[in-house]
């Protein structure tokens, strides 16, 4: 009877430890290329989130410009859980400071999409109004190249 009680107690401790173990994969869930679900957006078109090592992330934002999208550059992302013990970070912030404006971005990773909110403040006394934006992004599909495709050498024109 004592042996069975000890086995049950040991199993309970192991189960509790497994449930309480932190999930370190959450920041990695942000990593990838994300495209705006609205193909006609006039705002942010694409996010490229990369690992910076040790559960740290960087983000590169692209905005709608013509003829090609504008690259805002790359800045760090700070991730957040729901409380001080929560290692399942599904929220993040990034800050873009330009000479004429400051844009704070918030990210909310929920399943297969990211909700991006932007808060832009103009610093150049231009009279433009500060503004808020919200967009939804989906992971860009990965392009698969079939194995065994014939490769033709490129011949220079003479």
Task: Describe what this molecule looks like in 3D.
This protein is an alpha+beta fold and 158 residues long. It has one domain: Beta Barrel (Lipocalin), CATH 2.40.128.30. The protein is 15% helix and 42% strand. The chain is built from two helices and eight strands. It has an eight-stranded antiparallel beta barrel. The protein is globular, with a radius of gyration of 23 Å. The N and C termini lie far apart (91 Å). The model is unreliable at 5-25 (pLDDT under 50).
Short description:
Keywords: Signal. The protein is α+β, with helices and mostly antiparallel strands. 15% of the residues lie in helices and 42% in strands.
What is the CATH fold-level name? Lipocalin
CATH architecture: Beta Barrel
Shape: globular
Strand segment count: 8
């Amino acid at each position: 009877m004592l042996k069975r009680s000890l086995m049950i107690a040991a199993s309970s401790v192991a189960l509790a430890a497994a449930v309480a173990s932190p999930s370190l994969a959450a920041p990695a869930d942000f990593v990838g290329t994300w495209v705006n679900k609205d193909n006609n957006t006039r705002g942010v078109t694409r996010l490229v989130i990369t690992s910076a090592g040790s559960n740290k992330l960087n983000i590169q934002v692209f905005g709608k410009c013509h003829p090609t999208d504008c690259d805002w550059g790359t800045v760090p992302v700070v991730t957040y859980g729901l409380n001080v013990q929560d290692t399942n970070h599904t929220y993040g912030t990034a800050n873009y400071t330009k000479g004429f404006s400051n844009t704070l971005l918030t990210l909310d990773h929920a399943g297969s999409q990211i909700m991006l909110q932007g808060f832009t403040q103009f610093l150049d006394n231009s009279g433009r109004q500060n503004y808020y934006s919200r967009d939804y992004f989906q992971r860009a599909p990965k392009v698969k190249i079939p194995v065994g495709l014939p490769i033709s050498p490129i011949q220079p024109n003479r």
